[in-house]
Amino acid sequence: MKIPISWLKDFVDLDGLSVEDMARKLTLAGLEVDEILYAGLEMPVYKEGEKHEFKTSGIAWDKEKIVVAEIREVKAHPNADKLTLLDLFDGQQEQVVLTGAPNIFHLKGTGMLEKPIKVAYAKEGSTLYDGHAEGLQLMTLKRAKIRGVESYSMVCSEKELGIAEEHDGIIILEDEAPVGRPLADYMGDAVLNISILPNMARNASVIGIARELAALTGRELRKHAQADRYTSKHAQADTLKPVNELVEIEITDPELNPRFVVGLIRDVEIKPSPYAIQRRLKLAGQRPINSVVDATNYAMLELGEPLHAFDYDVLKERAGKKKIKIITRAAKDGEKLTTLDGSQRTLTSMNVLVCDEKGPLSLAGVMGGSESEVTDKTKNVLLEGAAWNFINIRRTAKQHNLPSEASFRFSRGVHPALAEQGVKRGLQYMAEWAGGTIAPGLVDEYPLKPKDPTITVTPHDVKRLLGIDLTAKKISELLTRLEFKCTIDKDKVKSKTPPHRMDIAKGVVGLADVLEEIARGYGYDNIPVTTMADALPPQVGNPVHEWEEHLRDLLVALGLQEVVTHRMTSPEREGRLLGSRLRPEPNNYVRIANPTAPERSVLRKSLLTSVLEIAEKNARAESIAMFEVGPIFEPNGNDTSTSSHRPDVLLGERGLPNEPRELAIVMTGARLASAWDVKDSPAFDFFDMKGRLELLLSGLRLTDISYAAAREASTPYLHPGKAAEVKVNGQVVGLFGELHPLVKEKFEFGESAVSVAEFDLDLLRRLNPTYGIKSVPETPPIYEDIAVIVDDSVEASAVESLIRQTGAGTVTAVRLFDVYKDEKIGVGKKSLAYSLTYQSDKTMTDAEAAAIRNKIVKRLEHAVGAKLRS
Amino acid sequence: MLDKLNEIEKAALESLSSISDQAALDAWRVANVGRSSPLMGIFSEFGKLSKEQKPVVGSAANRVKAALESAEEGKSKELKIATLAKSLAEEKLDVTLPGRTVKVGKLHPTTQQLRRVLDILAEMGFQVYTSREVETDEMNFQMLNFPPHHPARDMQDTFFVEADNRGDNPILMRTHTSPGQIRAMRDASRAATDPLNPPSIRIALPGMCFRYEQITARSEIQFNQVEGLAVGRNITFADLKGTLADFVRRMFGEGARLRFRASYFPFTEPSAEVDVECFVCGGVGCQVCKNSGWLEILGCGMVHPVVLQNGGYDPKVYSGFAFGMGPERQLMLRNKINDIRYFWGNDVRFLEQF
Q1: Which of A225, A266, B227, B325 is deepest in the core (most CB within 10 A)?
Q2: Is residue A609 domain-resident?
Q3: Is A401 on the interface with B (CB under 8 A)?
Q4: CATH code assigned at A273
C-alpha cells in the first residue's frame, strides 16, 4: 500500500530521519518498501559507485525555482484563443505566465482578480515532468516565444510535479498557502509503497505504519490527536434526535459479524474535498470523489477500518413510517443484489448481507449496493463501521472476483475495536469537509468481543528461542512500544495484546507471536550469529538419492545431455507414443482439477514421451543424445472414498498416486559431430544405444545382464525387428530399440532413426551390485580369431555364451569383430567372427589353446550347427 | 695410372655434387664404387703393374675409394636431412583449424545447482530427504499451519488433483518442499524409542514444486526448491543466523554481505527473508537487483510451534529452524538469465552453456 510521508507525520515525529532511513527501518522490520516515489521532497543523489538501497522514482522540487505564487490578474493572449496570460507574484517579483489550463480558462480576460489564486509556480530552469507527453518524461523549462509572447516559466499541474499521472488543469492551492515559500517545504512529499504480509494486516493503514516507525525509533505515537477532534471541535448538536432513536441493528450471526456500528451526519454538502486531502488520497492511490466519499476512504486509509456510507434518506424511505432496522445475515441462495459497480450479483448462502427489512443493501465487507449509495443529491449520511469474519470475506471476495480496499482489509482480519473509532473518524472528516451536523450517539451492536490474549514471556523464553539475553524490563519496553499492556512479575512479563491486532494467538503459539515482535523490535540485525550447540544427529546419508546422482553421472559420462521436463502433459501429447509398456499401463491419468492449459491437464505417465518432445524441439541439432531421470504418476486405484467417510474428516494418504522413478533416453542424428574433416557421419542406431546401456549397467556394477528381442505386444511403439528388453538377474528392467516408423512419423524428426530406451529405476536400484574385481593376469595372452557359419536365426548372444561356457577358465575375452552374409557361404547363413583371448595362471602354449579352440568348435557344431569357416 | 685415378676421383666427386635424391645416389654408388666401376677396373688391372708401381697405385686407389665412400656417406646424410626437412615442411598444419571434439553430455543446469547447494548443506550436516510431489492438503498446508481458507494460502496458488469427496483435504501438487518437514519429523519421532525424546534432525529437502501460474518469462508452473530443517534442543534464531551466514559464505563467497529482514511464512515464526548484497553490481544498483543493491535469496525462520507439534516434537522442549531457496532463481541471478522458461524448455543451445 502507498503511504505518503506527510500523512505519517500527523502521527509521529519523523524529524531527523531521511525518507530512506524510514524505508530501511520498515523494510528490515517486515514492512518491505518496494519503491519510494518522490513527489517534491529531496531525493538522495547517488555518486558513481555508491550503494543503492531502494528503487526510487519521481522528482524533487527545486526549492529556489518552484515556489508558491499568487495569480493577481488573468488576461487574454493577444494571438491565441485557447491561451490565457497570467500576471502573478512569486514572492519576489511579478511574472507573466502563459497557460492553457482548463480550470483557469473561465477567468480569461477577467483582469485583476478580487482574490488572488494561489498556485504552484515553476521558474525558468526547473525540471518537471512534461505535462503534454505520454507517460512520465522529464523536461527543463526553457525560454521560448509562444505566439509572440515570451514564456520562460509555468504554473504547474499535478502531472508536471509528479503527484498524479493525469491532470485536468493547474493545481489551485489553499488560500492560506504562503506566497514565495518553496513548494517542497509547503507540500513536498514522498510515498512509500509497502508490501503488507498476511500477518501484518494491522499495518494496512497510516496509523499502523506510524506505530511501527514510532516503535522502531522509540518515538511517541500521537494516535489520538485526530480522534479527539470528534468530541471537541464539532460539538454534537443536542437538538438532533440521537441515532438510536432512528436506527436499530440486528445481527443474526455474531460469528460472521461480531460488531456493527452506525452513526449519522445531517445536512452535508457534497462538494470536492480540500486540495490537501485530495492530494494525499491521490498519493495513496485513491481517486478523490467528493467530500463524503473521500472522508470514508481517508478514514479507512488512516485507521485501517473500511467504512460504508449509506444515503440515510433512501433507507428512511424504504422503511416507510417504521424505524430503520439494519439486519446482517447470510444471503439466501440465488438472492440478487446490484453492487455499486453496477453489476447484478447472484449470491449464495456463503455471502453475508447488510439488509433492511425490504431487502439487501450491501455485500458485507466487500462492496456496497447501488440503491443506497451516496450521490450528488445526498443530504444525510448513515455511516457504517463493522467487523466481519475474515475467512467469509475472503471467500466472498474470491467468489465474486471483487478485490476491493475493504475486502483486502477485512479478508485479513480487522479488529472489531476499530469499528467505533472508524465511524467517529469518518463522521468527523465529513463534518470538516462536507459541513453538516453529527447526530448524537452511535448505534453499536457488539455481540462478540475478541479475547485479546495475555501472553507470559520470560527472559528464558527469549534466550531459548532467539538466542539473546534480554531483561524482563527490556522485553516489556519493546512490547509496550507496540502498545502491548505489560506488567512485570519477577522475571515474567505478562503482555496483553492491544485492541487493534488479531494476529496474537494463545498459549505456545502466542509465545512465538510475541517473540517475533520482540525480535523485530530488537532488530534482526542486532541478534548475534552463533553456531548450533545441539549435537549433530547420526549421519546416515540418503542411498536412494545418491544412487540416482551416480546414475546421472554415468549417463553424462556416456555423452548424454540431461533434460528436465514438465510433469504436466495431456493424454493427446502422450498418445503419440501408443503408450509405454514398462509396467502395466494404468487406465487413468492423475488429472489436474484446475489446469492452466489443456496441454497440461494431467500428470505424465510416460517419461519417454516427455524426452521425445524435447528431442523433437531440438530436431534441428545434427545430433541428439539426451536423458531424463524423474517420476511418472500413476493413479492409485482406491481413490474414490466410500460413503462411510465423512468428508470433513482428514482422509490421510489414501488416494495419493504412485510416483515411480524412471529413466528415459533418446538418441538420434549424427554419431559424430560434422567438422572440416568429418563428413557424413553415420547416424545413431540401435547399437549406439545398446552400447551405452551396456556401459551404463556395468557402471552400476551389475552383472548377469541379458538382452532379448522384445515381445511386440509390449513395445508397440518400437520397430518390431529393432526392439529389445534388458534383463538383469532374469528380470526385465528396461526396454529399448528404434522407434516404429509409424510412430516416428507423428513426430517431426529428421531422416535418421530415433533410438529410445526406458528403465524402471525402482527395479534397477534394488538390484545388488557386484563389487569383485578380477586380478590383472601377468602371463602372456594368446590371441586367436575364429569364424563360424551359422543359420541366420541363431542369435549372436547364444554363440558367444557357448564360447564362454566352453572356454571357461581360459578364454578370458570374446569379442565379435565381424558379421558377414553372402551367397558364397550359403543362403540364410551368416558368418560370425570372434577374436578370442586365451590366458591362464600359467603361460599357455599354442597347442593348449588349439585344444580348447577345437572343443569350442565342436560344441558350436553340436549345439547350433555351426561350421568353422576356413 | 695415377692420373687416371685422379680423373676418376675428380669426375666422381663432380657428379656426386649434383645428386639430389637417394635413387641417383644409389646409381652413383654402383657407377663409381660398384664392381664394374672404373675405380674397381683399376684394382683389376693391378696385375699388370710393375713391382714399384703397385704400392703407389694401390695406396692411391685405396685413398680414392675411401674418399668416394666417405663422400657418399656425407651425401647420404645430407640427403636424409633434406628429405626430412622437406617432409616436415609438407606436414605443417594450420594450427588455427578447429580441434576435434567429442560429444559430451552435461547435467541439466538445475541438477548442477541443486548439487552445489546440497553439497554445501551436506558438509554442514544437513542430509538429503526427499518426499512425494503429489500431496494432500493436510500435509502441504494444514500441518504447516495454513488452516483452510487462510489468507496465507493466497501466497501459494495451488494446482489441485481431481479426487472425489475429500472435503477439506483435497489432493494437490505440493507448492513447496515443506510437507517433507512433517514427514521427516514424523519418521524420526515415530521411530524414536522414547516418544518424548525424539532425535535431533538436520535435513535438506530438495525437489520439484508447483504453483498455479501462467507460464511467462518471470513465472513457471514448476520449480525446484531446497529447504533446510534443523530441529533439536535450544536451537535459536542466532543459530539460524550463524548457519545461514556459513551457507552464504560457501555459496556466494567470503565477502558476501547479508541481511535479515523480518517476513512472514505460516510455518515459521519469527520469519525472515535473507538478502545478499547484489553480486552482479556489488550493491551499487543494477537491473538484476532492481537498483536496490540487495538480492532476496532465502526465506527462513524458527519452526512454528504448531509445525513442531504436528511433527511429534514438543515445542516447549524442542525448537528448530527452517530455510528455503530456489536453485533456478540462483542460476538466473548468477548467469543473468532473464527468462525462466529456458529451464524446462531444454533447448540444447541453452543447456550446453552450463
Answers
A1: B227
A2: yes
A3: no
A4: 3.50.40.10
Cβ within 8 Å of A, B 198-257: 199-202, 208, 210, 212-215, 221-222, 230, 232-239, 241-243, 245
What's at B307, amino acid-wise? V
Give the closest residue to A91 by CA, choosing from A120, A114, A115.
Answer: A120
Q: Find, among A718, A721, A720, A749, the residue nearest to A736 by Cα.
A: A718
Instruction: Please report, for residues A745, A867, B132, B184, the alpha-carbon distance to residue B187 in angstroms, rounded to integers and kept in the order given.
Output: 49, 64, 14, 5
Measured distance CA(B352)–CA(B105) in Å, rounded: 8
Q: 3-class SS at A50?
A: coil
Q: Does the beta carbon of B127 lie under 8 angstroms from any beta carbon of chain A?
A: yes
Report d(CA B13, CA B72) in Å as an integer: 9
Rounded Cα distance between A551 and A549, Å, is 5
Divide the 870 residues of chain A into consecutive groups of 10 and give the mean pLDDT of each group.
95 94 95 94 81 85 95 87 89 90 86 92 93 87 84 91 86 93 96 93 95 95 65 56 93 97 95 94 94 97 96 95 95 93 92 95 94 94 96 91 91 94 94 92 95 96 97 97 95 96 94 97 95 91 95 97 97 82 73 94 94 95 95 75 38 82 96 86 95 96 92 87 94 95 92 95 92 85 93 92 92 93 90 93 90 93 89
If one counts the domains in chain A, the total is 6
Look at residue A649 and tell me if it is in a domain.
no
Asked if residue B270 has a cis previous peptide bond (ω within 30° of 0), the answer is yes
A803 and A854 fall within a common domain? yes
Q: What is the DSSP letter of B329?
A: H
Taking the C-alpha atoms of residue A706 and residue A700, their distance in angstroms, rounded to an integer, is 15
B155 touches chain A (CB under 8 A): yes
Q: Does A47 touch chain B (CB under 8 A)?
A: no
- Compute the count of residue pairs across chains A and B with CB atoms less than 8 Å apart: 315
Structural domain that includes position A863: 782-868
Q: What is the CATH number of the domain that holds A836?
A: 3.30.70.380
Query: Which residues in chain B touch residue A532, judged by CB atoms under 8 angstroms apart?
Result: 230, 232, 235, 239, 242-243
Q: State the ipTM, two decimals.
A: 0.88
What angle, 0 to 180 degrees and rounded to 10, lies between the N-to-C axes of helices A417-434 and A291-303? 140
| Minimum-distance CB partner of B264 among A199, A544, A565 | A199
Chain A residues with CB under 8 Å of B344 CB are: 564-566
